[in-house]
Design a protein that fits this description.
The structure holds 2 protein chains of 2 kinds.
Chain A: E1 3-7, E2 26-30, E3 41-45, H1 52-67, E4 71-74, H2 80-90, E5 94-98, H3 112-121, E6 123-126, H4 139-149, E7 152-155, H5 163-173, E8 177-180, H6 191-198, E9 202-203, H7 207-213, H8 228-237, E10 242-243, H9 244-251, H10 255-267, E11 271-274, E12 277-280
Parallel strand pairs in A: 3-4, 3-7, 4-5, 5-6, 7-8, 8-9
Antiparallel strand pairs in A: 1-2, 2-6, 10-12, 11-12
Chain B: E1 2-11, E2 14-25, E3 30-34, H1 39-42, H2 44-54, E4 63-69, H3 81-91, H4 97-100, E5 103-105, E6 108-109, E7 115-116, H5 121-130, E8 135-139, H6 143-148, E9 152-156, H7 159-167, H8 196-208, E10 212-215, H9 222-226, H10 238-251, E11 266-267, H11 275-279, H12 289-292, E12 297-300, H13 308-313, H14 315-320, E13 322-327, E14 330-335, E15 339-344, H15 363-371, H16 375-378, E16 383-386, H17 392-395, H18 403-418, H19 426-439, H20 443-459, H21 467-474
Parallel strand pairs in B: 3-4, 5-8, 8-9, 10-15, 10-16, 11-12, 12-15
Antiparallel strand pairs in B: 1-2, 2-4, 6-7, 13-14
Helix pairs in contact in B: 2-3, 8-18, 18-20, 19-21, 20-21
The chains are: A alpha/beta, B alpha/beta.
C-alpha cells in the first residue's frame, strides 16, 4: 500500500481544511486521485446500527449525488457510512473515506474490502500516522475533517446523542449546509435527525435538494422505462414498505409476476429490499 | 456331522454371502460361534438354544461349533439367529441338510422361537438371487421386501414352521405381493394460507431440483412449507423406488410389512445430530441422513444451529450426489442425491424481519450467526426466500391450491427440462448482464440465476428463457444481507 502525506501549507493540502480553526498538520492518503480533495463534495453520515430505511436512503442518495459528479465523503463506519461509500462506487462515482485511525488499519474489519475498493476509485485519508489504533476519542476529531472536506453534510439517521450530530455541529460552525433526512417521529433512530430539523437544519427530501443548495444543475435524468406491472407495484410500495405476499394480495397478481416486477424496480434503483421487506426509494414530493 | 446354511452380511448398501457352518463333535457339551461375530451376534447362542427348545426340537448334547465364513468379515446384528438355528438342526439331521442348501435365511429369534424381522431383507434377497439361491427364509414382515427382488420368500412366523417346511410337512401361507406402497400421505399444500412467495419457490425447487433456503422470523411457517415439498415432487420411477427401498431397508426404517417406497422420502434430522449421523458412519459404515433422503428432501431446520463440521460435510454430497465414508475396515460409497431445504432465522434472537419486535442482537452476534454458513454452503442454495412476518390480512386468506395441481405443473416442467434447458433470449441475457453489474453477482451466482431462470421458463411452458424469467430468478438470489460480511 503506497501512502502519501499532504502537509499543511504545502501544495496538495486541501484548501477546504484550512477553514478549520485546528486543521490537521498532516493528512495521510491512500489512493491516487488526490485532486478529489479539491472537488465539490458532500458528506453522508449517520448511525452505525441503522435501519433498513436508513441504509437504503443512504445508498440511493449517494448513488444519485455521485452520479451528479459530487464526491461522497463519509467515515467508513458500519451502517450509513458504509452504504454511502457503496452507493457512490455503484454509481461509478468517487468517494473519500476519512478514518479515525491509521489508514493502514482495517477498521472496521468487515470493511477491509470496501476500503480497498474506495482507494481504487477515490481516497482513504486520516490525520493519524499509519498504525494508529482506532479509539473512540479520535472519532469526533475525524468528524471535523469530514465536515470540512464537504460543502454540505447530510445526516441520514442518528440517535439523540449520535456522533453524526457532532459532524453536523462542525459543519454549522464552518458555515456549511446541513441536511437531515426526516424519519418517523416515534423511532429512536430518527430522534437526532428530526431534532436537527427542529433546530433549523434543512429537511432532505431528495438528492435535488443538495444539488440545488450547491448550485449544481443535476443532469436531467431520463425517467426509467418501466413495465406496466412494475409501475403498478411502485404505486403500491409508495403506500409503505411491504413483503411480497402482501403485494401479491394487494395487486392480485401472481407471485411470479410480482417477483419479476420487484427485481425490475430494484435494478432501476426505484426500490430496495431488506429482510424480505421492499421499500420504494426516492422522494414523493415534486421538486 | 456338518451342515451349512446361507445368509448375508451387510457391507454399506451391499450384502455379501455368508456361509453358516455348524459342526457337531463328540465331547463335553459346549457351543461356540467363531467368524468375527459382534456382541449381538455372539448372543445368538442363548436365543438359538432357547428357541430350538421352545420349538420342541432337540438341542444337540455334544460339542457344537458354528463358523461364519468368510471368517475375516465382521458380522453385525441379530439376523444370524435363524440361519444358525437351521444349520444346527441340519447338522443334527433334524431337518434335511440338502434342502437347506437351496435356501438363504435371515431373521432374529425370540426365546419362544418366533421369528422377528431384521433390516436389509431387500438387499439380502437380491444377494440371494445373485448367489443362485431361489428361496429366502425370513420373517413374515420382511416377505414383501424379499418379493421385490424376485426371490421366493418363505415367510415363517416360528422356527418350528421353518423346520416343518424343510421336512416337507408345512407350506407357509403366501404373502400377497407387496402390500402396495405406504398408505402415508404427504401433507398437502392446501393447508397453507397465503405465503404465495414461498409456494412459488417450492414449485420452482421441485421442478428444477434446486436447493431452497427459507429465512424469516420464527412462526412464519418455514417448517410447515418445507414439509410439503415431497408432496409436489413426482413419484419415484421403478428403478429409483428400488434404490430408495434398498437404503431404507438396510437402515431398518422401512415400516414392517411394506413393499416398495414409491414416494420421495423426507428426512429432517434435528440440529443436535452428529456429523456421522448426517453423512453416514459407524465402524461398519451405515447410511446417514443424507443417504436416507436420497431422491427425496432433506430438511435442515434452523440451519444456523447445526455444528459447522456437519454443514461442511454436506458439501461433497451436494456436489457429487454421493458420500464416501472411509473407515479402517474399508471405504463405502453411499448415494446421496437429495433436495436440500434449509430454514433459518434472520438473526440469533429471531426478531429481525418481524415488524412488531425490535431485534436485540449486537452486530457482532449477528455477523457470527451469518458467518457460520460459509459462502461455499450458501452458494449451494439456488433459491433464497425471505419470509417477513405475515400481517393478519394475509393469514385470513383462503386455502391455497392443493399439492396435486402443483405436482402436475412440476411434472410437466421436469419433462420439458429433461429435453435440455431452454436457451435465453437476447433480452434475457442483457438483463442478466445488467444485474451482474448492478447487484454484483458472482460467477457462481450468475450460473445459479441462469439455472433457476431455465426452470422458471420451463414452468411457464416457454420455448426460451425470456427477460421476465430471469427477473424472477434474480429475486431468489442470496440477498447481500444474508451473505457473509456484506
Amino acid at each position: 500500500m503506497t501512502i502519501r502525506t499532504l502537509k499543511r501549507g504545502r501544495p496538495g493540502y486541501p484548501a477546504a481544511l484550512a477553514e478549520l480553526h485546528d486543521p490537521p498538520a498532516v493528512l495521510f492518503v491512500r489512493g491516487e486521485r488526490i485532486e478529489l480533495l479539491e472537488k465539490p463534495a458532500v458528506a453522508i453520515v449517520g448511525a452505525r446500527s441503522c435501519s433498513a430505511y436508513g441504509a437504503q436512503v443512504a445508498r440511493s442518495l449517494a448513488r444519485e449525488l455521485a452520479a451528479a459528479g459530487l464526491v461522497v465523503v463519509s467515515g467508513l463506519a458500519r451502517g450509513v457510512d458504509g452504504e454511502a461509500h457503496r452507493g457512490a462506487i455503484e454509481a461509478g462515482g468517487t468517494t473519500v473515506a476519512v478514518l479515525g485511525c491509521g489508514i493502514d488499519r482495517d477498521y472496521p474489519a468487515r470493511h477491509a474490502e470496501l476500503a480497498r475498493r474506495i482507494a481504487e476509485v477515490g481516497l482513504v485519508v486520516a490525520e493519524y500516522p499509519p498504525g494508529t489504533e482506532p479509539a473512540p476519542w479520535r472519532f469526533p476529531a475525524r468528524n471535523r475533517v469530514i465536515a470540512a472536506l464537504a460543502r454540505a453534510t447530510v445526516i441520514v439517521e442518528a440517535r439523540e446523542r449520535s456522533g453524526a450530530l457532532i459532524t453536523a455541529d462542525f459543519a454549522l460552525e464552518l458555515g456549511r449546509e446541513v441536511f437531515a433526512v426526516p424519519g418517523e417521529i416515534c423511532a429512536a433512530l430518527s430522534a437526532g435527525t428530526n431534532g436537527l430539523i427542529r433546530q433549523g437544519a434543512a429537511p432532505l427530501l431528495g438528492a435535488d435538494d443538495v444539488l440545488e443548495a450547491l448550485g449544481i444543475a443535476g443532469r436531467p435524468r431520463p425517467a426509467p422505462v418501466l413495465s406496466a406491472g412494475a409501475t403498478a407495484l411502485l404505486e403500491l410500495l409508495r403506500d409503505g414498505p411491504a413483503g411480497v405476499d402482501e403485494l401479491v394480495a394487494r395487486s392480485r397478481c401472481a407471485a411470479a409476476d410480482v417477483a419479476a416486477a420487484l427485481v425490475e424496480l430494484e435494478l432501476t434503483g426505484l426500490a430496495a429490499q431488506a429482510d424480505g421487506v421492499h421499500r420504494a426509494l426516492g422522494t414523493t414530493i415534486a421538486a | 456331522m456338518l451342515a451349512r446354511a446361507h445368509t448375508h452380511a451387510l457391507v454399506g448398501l451391499d450384502a455379501r454371502t455368508v456361509e453358516v457352518e455348524a459342526h457337531l463333535q463328540r465331547g463335553s457339551p459346549a457351543f461356540a460361534i467363531v467368524g468375527l461375530p459382534d456382541k449381538a451376534c455372539q448372543e445368538a447362542k442363548e436365543r438359538v438354544r432357547s428357541s430350538i427348545k421352545s420349538a420342541e426340537l432337540e438341542w444337540p448334547r455334544c460339542r457344537l461349533t458354528v463358523n461364519l465364513a468368510p471368517a475375516g468379515l465382521r458380522k453385525e446384528g441379530s439376523g444370524y439367529d435363524l440361519p444358525i438355528a437351521l444349520a444346527v438342526l441340519a447338522a443334527g439331521r433334524q431337518v434335511p441338510p440338502e434342502r437347506l442348501g437351496e435356501h438363504a435365511a435371515m431373521g432374529e429369534l425370540a426365546l419362544d422361537g418366533r421369528v422377528r424381522p431384521v433390516p436389509g431383507a431387500l438387499v439380502a434377497a437380491e444377494a440371494a438371487r445373485r448367489a443362485g439361491l431361489p428361496y429366502l427364509f425370513c420373517a413374515r414382515e420382511s416377505a414383501p421386501e424379499a418379493l421385490l427382488a424376485g426371490v421366493e420368500a418363505v415367510p415363517v412366523r416360528h422356527l418350528g414352521e421353518a423346520a416343518a417346511y424343510l421336512r416337507g410337512s408345512f407350506r407357509p401361507e403366501p404373502v400377497e405381493a407387496a402390500a402396495r406402497a405406504a398408505p402415508f400421505r404427504d401433507p398437502d399444500l392446501a393447508d397453507v394460507r397465503g405465503q404465495e412467495r414461498a409456494r412459488r419457490a417450492l414449485e420452482i425447487a421441485a421442478a428444477g431440483g434446486h436447493n431452497l433456503l427459507l429465512a424469516g422470523p420464527p412462526g412464519t411457517g418455514k417448517t410447515m412449507l418445507a414439509r410439503r415439498l415431497p408432496g409436489i415432487l413426482p413419484a419415484l420411477t421403478q428403478e429409483q423406488a428400488l434404490e430408495v427401498t434398498r437404503i431404507h431397508s438396510v437402515a431398518g426404517i422401512l415400516p414392517a410389512g411394506h413393499g416398495l417406497v414409491e414416494r420421495p422420502p423426507f428426512r429432517a434430522p434435528h440440529h443436535t445430530a452428529s456429523t456421522p449421523a448426517i453423512v453416514g458412519g459407524g465402524p461398519g459404515p451405515r447410511p446417514g441422513e443424507v443417504t436416507l433422503a436420497h431422491r427425496g428432501v432433506l430438511l435442515l431446520d434452523e440451519l444456523g444451529e447445526f455444528p459447522r463440521p456437519a454443514l461442511e460435510a454436506l458439501r461433497q454430497p451436494l456436489e457429487d450426489g454421493t458420500v464416501a465414508v472411509a473407515r479402517i475396515m474399508g471405504r463405502v460409497l453411499f448415494p446421496a442425491r437429495f433436495l436440500l431445504v434449509g430454514t433459518m432465522n434472520l438473526c440469533p434472537c429471531g426478531a429481525r424481519g418481524d415488524p412488531g419486535v425490535e431485534c436485540s442482537c449486537s452486530p457482532q452476534r449477528l455477523a457470527a450467526y451469518r458467518e457460520k454458513l460459509s459462502r461455499a454452503l450458501l452458494d449451494r442454495f439456488d433459491l433464497v426466500v425471505t419470509l417477513p412476518r405475515a400481517r393478519s390480512v394475509e393469514v385470513a386468506g383462503a386455502r391455497g391450491e392443493g399439492s396435486s395441481g402443483v405436482a402436475h405443473r412440476v411434472a410437466a416442467a421436469r419433462e420439458s427440462l429433461a429435453g435440455g434447458p431452454p436457451c435465453p433470449t437476447p433480452a434475457a441475457s442483457e438483463l442478466l448482464a445488467r444485474a451482474v453489474d448492478r447487484v454484483g453477482l458472482s460467477a457462481r451466482g450468475h450460473a445459479r440465476v441462469s439455472r433457476v431462470a431455465a426452470t422458471v421458463a420451463a414452468l411457464a411452458g416457454a420455448e426460451s428463457v425470456a427477460a421476465e424469467h430471469v427477473a424472477e430468478a434474480l429475486s431468489y438470489r442470496s440477498p447481500s444481507e444474508l451473505a457473509v460480511a456484506a
